[in-house]
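Sequence in, structure out. Go.
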Amino acid sequence: MNFTNKEVEPRAAHPMTRVAIAYGLAMVIGLILLSKLREPVSYYGVTTGLGFFLGKEPLLSLTWGAAGGVALALTSELASRYTRWGRAIERMLLTLVGRMHPLDALLLALLSASGEELLFRGVLLPYVGLLPSAILFGALHIVPRKHLWVWSIWAALAGLLLGYLAIATKGLVAPITAHFVVNFIGLLYAGRRRR
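Output:
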């Protein structure tokens, strides 16, 4: 046996590791804020933590969330196929994350949907209202390239739908589900479409 004293260079972390950590932190911050604030719970008309997440009718909330997520994914797909900005956003996503393994896409979609929805629909919406929270959501999705400004508008419109789902179902399961569905489909299929 030949043992050498070679130094092994540490492997660089995958670029999405930082993103996953950031979304995980957003989720933790959202949960901490929600545990301390009374307004979001009373806004949705529930007094228990679990009721706040599940809404008045959990199965119906999941169904509406899945339907909303599919609708958002379809609009995203149409933008990718028929608009310059949609193709540019898809290329940018592919550059950032590459072709993801389905489990990686699942985890990142779950973290991003949970973190953003806890903050935007859980914490912000009850304090600032539907339209301002949707505009802030769109602003979070600003891409600093001139021809991609439309993406922020699309995100703000998505924020309106996600906020409406939260208000209509009186909980966060529907918007988290919708957000998860659109993100999972987008991450899973980025770069896999045939042109």
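Check: The chain has a mean pLDDT of 85. The two ends are 53 Å apart (CA to CA).
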